[in-house]
Amino acid sequence: MSAPPTGDADLLARHVNGDPQAFNELIERHRDRLWAVALRTLGQSEDAADALQDALISAYRGAAGFRGGSAVTTWLHRIVVNACLDLARRKAVRPTEPLPADVTADRTGPDALADRDIQMSVLAALRRLPAEQAAAVVLVDIEAFAVEEAAAILGVPSGTVKSRCARGRARLADHLKDFDPRRNETDLSRVETGEQADSMKRNGTQP
Question: What does pTM read for this prediction?
Answer without folding.
Answer: 0.68
